[in-house]
Amino acid sequence: MKIMPQAREELKTFLLITVVLAPVLAVLIVSGFGFSIWISQLIFGPPGT
């Protein structure tokens, strides 16, 4: 079974997005949110004070 060139490019793009891009973006978003919470607590103090 021969894969057409366009289908091969689509498969490479899909794998790049699902294996590399999505996990990296998820880590960056979560760590950025955690960093912003940490900095805000350094400036304004812990919650409830």
Explain what you see.
- The protein has one helix at residues 5-44.
- It is mainly alpha-helical.
- It is built from 1 helix and no strands.
Mean pLDDT: 92
Oligomer: single chain
- What is the distance, rounded to the nearest whole angstrom, between the alpha carbons of the first and last residues? 66 Å
Strand content: under 5%
Largest sheet: none
Radius of gyration equals 20 Å
Please provide the count of β strands.
0
Helix content: over 70%
Residue ranges: pLDDT <50 for 5 or more in a row? none
Total helical elements: 1
Mass-distribution shape: rod-shaped
> From the helix content, strand content and strand pairing, which structural class follows?
mainly alpha
SSE order: H
Task: Name its key features.
mainly alpha, 49 residues, 1 helix
Question: Can you describe this structure in just a few lines?
Answer:
With 49 residues, this protein is an all-alpha fold.
